[in-house]
Design brief:
Blueprint (H helix, E strand, L loop, with lengths): L4 E5 L11 H10 L4 E5 H11 L4 H15 L2 E6 L10 H22 L3 E5 L18 H18 L2 E5 L10 H11 L4 E6 H8 L13 H13 L8 E5 L2 E2 L19 H9 E2 L12 H11 L5 E4 L13 H20 L22
Parallel strand pairs: 1-2, 1-10, 2-3, 4-5, 5-6, 6-7, 7-10
Antiparallel strand pairs: 8-9
Helix pairs in contact: 1-3, 1-11, 2-3, 3-4, 4-5, 5-6
Length: 359
């Protein structure tokens, strides 16, 4: 019987350069997480601080620690700003130089999956000229290119629509891309935040919502129910909520970043775990989750991918606090949706993370 397994993103436990990666992994395992989405920023920080910039040695050590903790590395991410580039020389560079290095690191980490978020490079900040194309055929060919190379190396790719993406910003658009790429090793990541954050939420509006939020989300979820997506093409899902802001996120808001999409600024500062309404959560995440698990029949990795200003808190208990909040959210979702095989585990430790060290 395939059951759901709890995962969390390494960046969701504390900021790199503030909270060390081994400590975050230890807290994730202690609180019951079985898998980690490993962010390259965390790996890079660990390599720079502990291994003189040797990413391969850092990868071997991360794998060793995860094995000792009984955790899997779900994926290495994000292989970003890739598909649909107008600058084809840069596209070639990413494929010919960056991608082989990521294969080496992913193999050392013991994962066969690399996550690819939809491109959000945006226009050139000086000329304002577009740097990506919305031409679906170019996007699909670019992703087929890495899928075909990855297939020969034993790797899978998981594609996720970001709600601030340049051209792919809805689950519908990402599924059309995955369908058209048509490769066994190229699948979909469905993220509750990015789905609801695009059609339901508008952090720039006083209400925090789009004009027809409830109806638009309901229509999108109905399309998801009836899209005939093979659950096997969903490589994993992410469950996360968003915080209702006290004021519109405009140029006067402290989260505003010049030139950055509003939804991206909101995402970087204000994600929450599901069922954290007391902290301001307001997206209909349960409605989205019901479609993932009850209608589509997904079973597998369920990752809690949270970005928040709270992750920058230098308190050494920050990783433990976020691990506790995340696993509490995961277990509550399991109880509400009656997931089979759900076993709640008490934390084995709540100690703050140790200083960085070689294993």
């Amino acid at each position: 019987m395939v059951i759901n397994r709890p995962g969390i993103a390494s960046m969701s436990l504390g900021r790199p350069w503030i909270h060390d990666l081994p400590g975050k992994l230890m807290q994730a395992a202690a609180h019951g997480f079985e898998g980690i989405e490993l962010f390259f920023d965390d790996l890079d920080c660990y390599a720079q601080r502990t291994f003189n910039g040797d990413h391969l040695e850092a990868s071997h050590q991360v794998r060793r620690l995860c094995e000792r903790l009984g955790m899997s590395i779900i994926c290495l991410q994000p292989f970003s700003m890739y598909e649909g580039l107008i600058d084809r020389a840069e596209s070639d560079r990413l494929v010919n130089e960056k991608l082989p290095q990521w294969f080496i690191l992913a193999r050392a980490l013991g994962t066969d999956m690399i996550q690819v978020p939809s491109n959000f490079l945006g226009p050139d900040p000086e000329t304002k000229a577009p740097r990506t194309t919305g031409d679906r055929s170019v996007i699909v060919k670019d992703l087929q290119r890495i899928a075909d190379i990855g297939a020969g190396e034993g790797f899978r790719f998981v594609y996720e629509a970001l709600c601030w993406g340049d051209h792919v910003d809805t689950w519908e658009a990402s599924w059309e891309v995955v369908r058209d790429v048509d490769r066994a090793n190229f699948g979909l990541c469905l993220d509750s935040f990015n789905i609801a954050g695009r059609v339901y939420a508008d952090p720039a509006a006083p209400s925090g919502k789009t004009p027809n939020a409830a109806a638009d989300l309901a229509a999108s979820l109905e399309r998801l129910r009836t899209a005939n997506i093979d659950p096997a093409k969903i490589f994993y899902v992410q469950l996360v909520d968003g915080e209702r802001l006290d004021a519109p996120l405009d140029e006067n808001h402290p989260f505003h970043v010049e030139g950055q999409p509003v939804r991206m600024s909101w995402s970087r500062n204000s994600r929450l775990f599901p069922f954290e309404e007391s902290r301001g959560g307001y997206l209909p995440i349960l409605d989205v989750a019901k479609v993932f698990f009850n209608d589509l029949g997904f079973r597998g990795w369920v990752s809690l991918e949270l970005f928040s200003r709270t992750l920058a808190n230098p308190d050494p208990f920050t990783p433990a606090d976020h691990a506790r909040r995340g696993i509490d959210s995961y277990y509550k979702m399991g109880r509400v949706l009656n997931w089979e095989g759900q076993e709640e585990k008490a934390p084995t430790s709540i100690a703050p993370p140790p200083v960085q060290h070689r294993l």
